[in-house]
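Query structure, 628 tokens:
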């Protein structure tokens, strides 16, 4: 079987892959840097020419020595462009194609312009937004196309050299597992030699395809990009890792090189760290890599994992308070076109048991919440093609006018469905719904944010990137949201930790998640997928691991609705600081036979019995009274 290679597709990567596509030992795929990193992380590639920041996040990666994509001076293709100097910018739009460039930009601007606001988006959108005091980080080939078009440019490699006196490494050949051999690594070195010799031909081909000046492109390949990974480059890379870890942007990492005699990555890199060391770092709030999380998941005892998670909770919430909210989960329709294999709640279009709640029924439900002192409605449903955006806008305005409750409504899947139905952008849909009364976005539909899993359990559902994209847009608009995970179908431990990593990355970017909740798949005979790993002990381990890995989330909620009040109470000593909602009603997991319920008094008693003070909150986790 050939070695699966994934490579950055930019011009600056071409010299390192010269001739590899013709080598029968390899199958070669090109993609954006972020996609290349995802493929290696999710076992869709054996070796990847990818951003070095992603390697630190994974933690079980070895870097092939002798070659990289870096720069010893101005790199030209990684820069912040603007009409104003970076010190005068109020916002910087981040091209999210490469985590390395994003982290480097944040490090450099923390010293030059610490109050600047960052907005993540696709490259084309970032470029369109350059105006006035809004600049943009543009990387790769698109950056070459706008050279000379803006009066102010901060070349990130040049700025790094100025601050540290060291070269910067943007990307390198990285591998996990044991698919790569010494012969393969030698082939990469030979490709580099041939590629550097072919720089003129590569520049000519790119000039023909883009209309850019061939002499400028040849100079770019020969002078701006450095393809070596020597001692000085390694010092620069380690300095980057150290500064990013200090800034809590990356896990603390030591550069680990691939050696032909070394064992597979499962026993090298940070995953081989002493278990007690990882637990101590976790308790102290250090950022952990994916490999660290997997090591804890595999080897830490339930007791030790719980202690570390509880230490994180105590450090974040030293006041000893557990919050809860009085709201109601209203499922306005069960008609859905997605046909998720794990869902016992939905009914297909035209099914006799399909429903859409009338205003009369909704009104009774909402009034009960008001009478009980509730503050919010959690409104979610199926993807019903009969309901258009105007229906939602009218509903939201009516709910706000008549009942004045907070509206935590519509999962990313529902918002995407409305956008497709109306041929609108996600931002336009959110803007219209927000104007009508939408206050925040629930985290439903995340399941596992690994597309291999999503395709198995709900093949027509949105991709992980689409789900994250809706949340990104909502956060940029000032809307808050919750992060969730439903596990226990076909997912593995690695899938679950990768899911946490993706939530953590988006939280780094936006800070828009208020809390995280997880629960296991509630199986019922008749659903179209068998249950995978589940049970109380796994739930407690998963919640504790989430508290440890999600170092930038303020709150973790206990899922007593699926696990039961007793387990929910224990979960308060496994990292949770929130007891969720009293849940006047719940229809989705109860459709699978799980019907736990609690009122506010019972919930407060449970919190007190666990040794905490209780306080009611709203969706933003503001306290609505004094703890008692």
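Result returned for the query:
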């Amino acid at each position: 079987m050939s070695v699966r290679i994934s490579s950055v597709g930019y011009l600056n990567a071409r010299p390192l892959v010269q001739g590899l596509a013709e080598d029968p030992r390899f199958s070669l795929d090109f993609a954006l840097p972020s996609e290349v990193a995802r493929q290696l992380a999710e076992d869709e590639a054996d070796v990847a020419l990818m951003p070095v920041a992603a390697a630190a996040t994974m933690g079980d990666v070895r870097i092939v020595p002798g070659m990289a994509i870096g720069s010893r001076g101005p790199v030209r293709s990684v820069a912040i462009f603007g009409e104003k100097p970076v010190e005068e910018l109020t916002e910087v739009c981040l091209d999210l194609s490469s985590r390395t460039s994003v982290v480097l930009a944040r490090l450099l601007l923390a010293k030059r312009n610490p109050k600047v606001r960052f907005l993540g988006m696709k490259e084309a959108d970032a470029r369109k937004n350059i105006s006035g005091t809004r600049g943009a980080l543009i990387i790769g080939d698109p950056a070459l196309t706008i050279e000379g078009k803006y009066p102010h440019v901060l070349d990130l490699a040049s700025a790094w050299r100025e601050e540290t006196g060291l070269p910067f490494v943007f990307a390198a050949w990285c591998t996990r597992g044991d698919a790569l051999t010494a012969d393969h690594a030698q082939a990469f070195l030979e490709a580099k030699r041939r590629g550097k010799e072919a720089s003129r031909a590569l520049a000519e081909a790119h000039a023909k395809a883009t209309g850019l000046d061939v002499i400028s492109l040849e100079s770019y390949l020969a002078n701006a990009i450095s393809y070596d990974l020597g001692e000085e480059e390694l010092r620069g890379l380690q300095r980057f890792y150290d500064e990013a870890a200090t800034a809590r942007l990356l896990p603390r990492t030591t550069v680990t090189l691939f050696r032909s005699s070394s064992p597979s990555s499962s026993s090298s890199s940070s995953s081989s760290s002493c278990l007690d060391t990882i637990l101590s770092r976790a308790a102290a709030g250090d950022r952990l890599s994916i490999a660290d999380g997997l090591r804890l998941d595999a080897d830490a005892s339930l007791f030790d994992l719980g202690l570390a998670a509880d230490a994180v909770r105590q450090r974040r919430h030293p006041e000893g308070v557990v919050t809860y909210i009085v709201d109601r989960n209203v499922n306005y329709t069960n008609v859905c076109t997605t046909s998720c294999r794990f869902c016992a709640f939905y009914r297909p279009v035209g099914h006799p048991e399909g429903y859409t709640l009338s205003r009369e029924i909704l009104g009774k439900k909402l009034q009960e919440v008001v009478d009980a002192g509730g503050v919010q409605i959690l409104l979610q449903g199926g993807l019903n093609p009969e309901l258009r955006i105007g229906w939602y806008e009218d509903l939201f305005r009516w709910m706000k006018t008549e009942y004045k409750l907070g509206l935590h409504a519509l999962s990313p899947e529902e918002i995407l469905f409305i956008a497709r139905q109306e041929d609108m952008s996600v931002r336009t849909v959110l803007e219209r719904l927000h104007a009508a009364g939408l206050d925040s976005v629930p985290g439903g539909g995340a399941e596992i944010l690994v597309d291999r899993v999503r395709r198995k359990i709900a093949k027509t559902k949105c991709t992980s990137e689409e789900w994250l994209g809706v949340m990104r847009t909502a956060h940029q608009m000032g809307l808050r949201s919750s992060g969730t995970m439903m596990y226990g179908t076909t997912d593995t431990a690695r899938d679950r930790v990768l899911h946490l990593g993706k939530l953590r990355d988006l939280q780094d970017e936006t800070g828009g998640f208020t809390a995280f909740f997880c629960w296991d798949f509630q199986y019922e005979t008749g659903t179209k997928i068998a249950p995978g790993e589940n049970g109380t002990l796994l739930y407690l381990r998963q919640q504790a691991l989430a508290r440890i890995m999600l170092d930038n989330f303020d709150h973790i909620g206990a899922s007593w609705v699926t696990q039961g009040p007793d387990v929910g109470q224990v979960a308060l000593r496994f990292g949770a600081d929130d007891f969720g909602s009293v849940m006047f009603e719940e229809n989705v997991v109860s459709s699978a036979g799980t019907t736990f319920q609690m009122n506010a008094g019972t919930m407060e008693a449970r919190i007190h019995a666990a040794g905490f003070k209780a306080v009611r909150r709203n969706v933003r986790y503001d306290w609505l009274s004094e703890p008692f």
